Amino acid sequence: MIVDTDILIEMMRSQLDYRIERWMNEQPIQPSTTAVAVAEILAGVELIDEKIRRATVQRIFRRIREEDFAYRVIPFDEDAADVFGHLMMAYGQQGDLHVIDMQVAAIALHKRETLATRRCEVFERLGVDVCNPLGVRRAGTNGRRQEPDEKFVRLEG
Questions:
Q1: Cα–Cα distance between 82 and 89 in angstroms, integer?
Q2: Is the entire prediction scored with pTM above 0.70?
């Protein structure tokens, strides 16, 4: 199981959603995240203007990385780059898909891992198995509710 950026952000909130905490505790193997997600969070932290708030968020994220994801940050390596190239050829002309999302998808596809994200519809389009730890589908998905541990059928791209 790979945790995407949006779930990492949820984990950084001062009041952690009980569904995220429960989901993390129920995983048979501790989830991983990606170097791409780490970079995305760190870039976002740098955009915080107020120094004290930025330092607080940096400290919170460092704690999450050390306690929840120590030694479980998956790099964007040559194998993921091969998958990424195929995704770019198949989906790169679609203006609503971001390069970062395709990098995360490439890692998940290469590792054959499910991606925990709130943005299931984006990654399903790219053929990634996904789950939403919050158990709620967002707008554009006909308001369907999915259980947090439910995996979606892999779509062929």
A1: 11
A2: yes
